[in-house]
Fold this protein.
Amino acid sequence: MNHTPIYISPEDNSKLRLLIATALYSRTSAALSKLRHELDRALVVDPADFPGGVVTMNSTVEFEDLGTSEIEEYTITFPENADVERHRISILAPIGLALIGCRVGDIVKWATPGGIRQLKVRRVAPPAADPTTPEIFARLATA
């Protein structure tokens, strides 16, 4: 489990809490509980005040598996925008939960069926200027 402080924007915090609230009505999930735990311990900070290299929603993160030296890169997305073939991984995937809010240089422990893996955040690219907004948020904004 990662105990270093994580950073999240007020907008991402609100959207992720809405995701949790709406999903809890339909099903109970360990991923949703873990996400809620991560949000509860996060420092909610205006993006302009973030320290450099923070993994946020829709940012692209390059990380190294310290056990295998394998380097991977994924964009952290909302579940409906996930597409592993395009290297877009859901915030509710274990690796998405492990990386959100972390900074370049952080080492996070990630539980897998094969045991604990340690991932080192190597690089973070900020979200594109116009990230895709999940349909549910677009509907709520116009309601």
Remarks:
- Confidence is low (pLDDT under 50) at residues 130-143.
- Strands lie at 7-8, 43-44, 60-65, 71-77, 88-90, 107-112, 115-125.
- The chain has one domain: 7-125.
